[in-house]
Amino acid sequence: MSPFTGWRAALRIARRDAMRAKGRSALVVAMIALPVLGVTAADVTYRSVDSTEAEQLTARMGSADALFSDPGMGPLQQMPDGNAYDIAGDEPPADDLPPIDMRTAFPEGARAISMRSVPASVTTAYGLTNTEIVEFRTADPMARGKVDLVEGEFPRATGEMAATKPFLDSSGLHIGSRTTVNSAGRTYTITGVVEQPSDLKAQQLYADPGAVIAPWQAASDRDKKVLPPNTGSTEWLVKGSGAAGIGWEDVLAANKAGALVVSRQVVLDPPPDSEIPMARSMDHYYAGDSAEASAAAVTVVAMALLEIVLLAGPAFAVGARRSRRQLGLVGVCGGDRRHVRAVVLSGGLVLGAVGAVTGVAAGLLLTMAFRPLIEEWAGQRFGSLLLKPTELLVIALLGLVTGLLAAFAPAIVAARQSVLESLTGRRGVRGSSRVLPTVGACVLVLGIAIAAFGGTGGEATLVAGGSVVAEIGLLACIPVIVGLLGRLGRRLPLSPRMALRDAARNRGRTAPAVAAVMAAVAGSVAIATYMSSNLAESDHEYTPMLARGTMVLSSSDAKAAERLPLVRASVERNMAVTGGHADFSRVWAGSDCNVYYEDENSCGSMELVKPTGKGHTCPLNTKGAKELAARLSAEEHRQMMRSPACMDEYISSGSFSSESNNIVVGGPELLRTYAKLDDPAAAAALKAGTPVLLNQAYATNGEITLKAVHTYNAKDEKNRKLHPGPARTSTDRLKVYVADAEYAATPGIRMILPQRTAERLGLHTQPSGSVYAVPHPPSDAEEQRVSAAIDQAGGGLWLQTERGPGDREDIILLILTLFAGVVTLGAAAITTGLAKADAEADLTTLSAIGAPPRVRRTLSGFQCVVVALTGVLLGTAAGLVPAVALRLVDLRNAMDAMREEPMESAFTPIVLPWATIGVLAVVVPLLAGVLAAAFTRSRLTLARRAG
Q: What are phi and psi of 202, to 5 degrees?
């Protein structure tokens, strides 16, 4: 008899059993299909976003055969991909090397189009904005793939432009709108919306060659007040004369003429090293690999398999229990234990196959359906929807194998039952093992110790290994933890008490679901904790240019300062400023270096002299700094770096003027608006003519030393009349109001000098700008309105805003939270559904003895809460182990770097993602309980209990 005869019968039994128990089968199929779906979608998305070399070339050169450029170094040699190049020969090129005539470098019969960009100021629907204009014949077929038309038409005349969608969204323009390039003095009509498939977020305008730069240059030649265009280098897209394209011989010929060439044919089919002159002088040419990406992919797939086994295993266990009479009949008919195992394993095979196929198909369909959204999120178009049949087959096989693995343990348990127990429906009594939890506790402690040792020793591999060991140990302890839950319900009402006891009594069903939740939550909490800690570290290291919640309007010279009142009115009309403006002035000694910077030693200088000694000199930037750094902890180093003496070494300057002394002239309004120093004593000091010092490291006994060199340029007749005679140096001791240490961190201002004190000291001042308090950074529309007002007033002013450290990566934390939340809800729902299917007899008894119908709903709800809350709490604890250990690795590396460079920050905080933990520990369990209660029927049809 064929060995497969028994398996054919087992498969038929499994298929019929799956059709009879449609609800339970759907749960198993869903839990197998969902991870397969996710892995399939991730695989297709990764392969599609990760452009091939041919797609990358298309993004750079469209459908052309090659991209030619002039590096400005004369004859050269290059590698085939054009990423590495150098001069040909030993003599360096001349400094005044003229640009080459690129037409001499093109192969005979080739056709070419040029591409050159220029930054420009253009009008918008709101006002004025700065953007990049590219002169490029976008209508040419060679441009396809580099710039594609989304809507409208390509520009075909010198008065037309195309725009990217991000630019239109920012500017408020649309097809048919007109925009003016200010410096060129010409107006253009937007005829179409285009996009760069490789960069969907680019804000650019496109015009035909000669439409913008040539008129701009002509306007500059006519009017010296118009600055010439600051164009980038010209690149050429070249199409060969024949089907062969641009070969390596053409590249070598172009190199002799001084052109750098990236050829499609050469990059995709490079010549041998013997034909590459530059290869002879290079030891190796490294292009990188994807080992890290492969390791990450393996980790993701392994986690997905673990989730399937943990979630689907209890379903097979309950299925085997409910089919025990059928399995007993197999034994009555002559079947042995291997036949019983085959029936249960066949269930895993059938449902695993259905789940795998469903997951792969659904993953492909969802990726196709959400392709535009994925492309927008990734910031680039797919070159093509790349499907690799081998990888998809492997993913499907993994789903099939995990279905078998999930049924493996239930199959062994079912095969151990005697035929009599199976036919009578008795479950038997089996005591809990004390060996597994004991071993699990020891493994948990060992894993934590390994992770901690790896963290303090700077070994990330030990951290990863110890974290996995600790999680395995915690998994082994889960049955005992679940068993202890039953003791917590002694004083609780009926429904929660029954839910806790049911979870403890049926550990085989509850423990895997809790483990699945724990695994998902542990990974999410670990990554979220590490990311939150990194964000806190980057926030700490970020050096702002302006004080938070402020905006500065500055002028470039005295003539521009005369326009300040007009522009202030526009700022206050168009932006959400709070309160009035605080004006400030520049202050300098001698002739103004901003005006007389061309002549050597012909302008003055002013310096706030910093005393030496403790509290004044930063010990981390002097002799003996390394010895001191070796004795400091990370927290001690952080406090020292934040001290006024050291903060002055790296805090930003130049926000208010080009002078490095960071002294400005202002009044009490500047203190309140910018420095956030709302102190009546400080305001009174300024009114009385006493300067306010924000960095106390410059003061000794409440006084500072101001050194000024009054050097005057012979051309500075106005100021020289006020101070005739030779250059002189003055050193003044001034009584100052010293602010608290926290104000030393004020960006751009070290001391505020009253106007009359500056005049008394013989210094010169000039109104320079205004400071505003704002509740949030201005929008694009607000900035464009003010830019238009500045341009209309005559220019020479600019607006500075402080936007903070940049991207917060909140979307990744949100995705992690949603992932863990969905797995938690799914595991809790599956466990509740299995509990209902497994406890129908108990629920029937409850109804028979008069329990209210709502007990059934509340019992389901609390069963869901028990699984979700237990898994989340254990997962949070497990996730903190690798996160904390990895931060210890970062701390060790930061300490090593700090001891080499004492001014380097060693601050390595550990910040818990309380929002993520709160959602997972409170919102998700409550939501799971409410949904379970809502979808549970209150009443059921009474049936006579069997047995």
A: -70, 135
> CA 146 from chain center: how many Å?
26
DSSP 289-357: --HHHHHHHHHHHHHHHHHHHHHHHHHHHHHHHHTHHHHHHHHHTT--HHHHHHHHHHHHHHHHHHHHH
3-class secondary structure, 230? coil
CA distance 561 to 558: 5
Kind and range of the H or E run holding 756: helix 755-760
Long-range Cβ contact pairs of 46-54 (< 8 A, separation 24 or more): 46/297, 47/386, 47/387, 47/388, 47/391, 48/382, 48/383, 48/384, 48/385, 48/386, 49/374, 49/378, 49/380, 49/382, 51/198, 51/380, 51/383, 52/383, 52/386, 53/267, 53/268, 54/264, 54/268, 54/383
Q: Where are the alpha helices (DSSP H) in 770-853?
A: 780-793, 810-838, 840-848
Structure tokens at 876: 């949070």
Rounded to whole angstroms, the Cα distance separating 203 from 196 reads 10
> Who wins on pLDDT, 143 or 303?
143
Residues 6 or more apart from 495 whose CB is under 8 A from it? 855, 858, 859, 861, 862
DSSP β-bridge partners for residue 731: 707
Rounded CA gap, 174 and 205, in Å? 12
Tens of pLDDT, residue by residue over 300-336, are: 455 455 555 665 556 565 555 556 556 555 665 656 6
Percent of the chain with pLDDT over 90: 29
Instruction: Map tokens 């994925």 to a residue.
Output: 374
pTM listed for this prediction: 0.74
Which of the two residues, 494 and 641, has the higher pLDDT score? Answer: 641
Question: Hunting for tokens 């939550």 — which residue is that?
Answer: 521
- Return the number of other C-beta atoms located less than 10 Å from residue 945's C-beta: 11
| 198 touches 192 (CB < 8 A) | no
Surface-to-core class of residue 346, CB atoms within 10 Å of its CB (0-12 exposed, 13-18 middle, 19+ buried): buried
Length of the chain: 947
Q: Torsion-angle region of residue 271: left (phi > 0), alpha (psi -120 to 50) or beta?
A: beta
Cα–Cα distance between 796 and 325 in angstroms, integer?
A: 90
Q: Does 313 or 41 have the greater pLDDT score?
A: 41
Separation CA 36–CA 799 (nearest Å): 52
Q: What is the pLDDT of residue 299?
A: 43
Q: What is the rounded CA–CA span in Å between residue 791 and residue 128?
A: 8
The residue type found at 703 is E
Rounded Cα distance, 302 and 310, in Å: 12
